[in-house]
Write a structure and sequence with these properties.
It comes from Deinococcus humi. Pfam families: Glutaredoxin (PF00462). With 82 residues, the protein is of the alpha+beta class. It is 46% helix and 20% strand. It starts with a strand and ends with a helix.
Length: 82
């Protein structure tokens, strides 16, 4: 199983949706709050080249922007990760 990291901010509906999706698929993940952790923000920026959450990293695949647009890719990456 690949490592999964979700970069989030508090009170973010898309962040919560990504976490619910991963949980519903039985995927263990690490959550990093980029608003409260400058190192996590820098890490997210280095991996995704964006400043907006959520960003989901599954192995070497990075998903960002609108959650609904990324859902099929996240599910595909989870399938490949199993």
């Amino acid at each position: 199983m690949r490592d999964i990291t979700v970069y989030t901010v508090p009170q973010c509906a898309d962040c919560e949706a990504v976490k619910r999706l991963l949980t519903s698929q039985g995927a263990a993940f690490t959550e990093k709050n980029v608003r409260g952790d400058p190192l996590a923000l820098a890490e997210m920026q280095a991996k995704a080249n964006v400043r907006i959450a959520p960003v989901t990293v599954i192995g070497d695949q990075v998903f960002h922007d609108l959650f609904d647009d990324q859902r099929p890719g996240i599910l595909s990456a989870l399938g490949a990760a199993k």
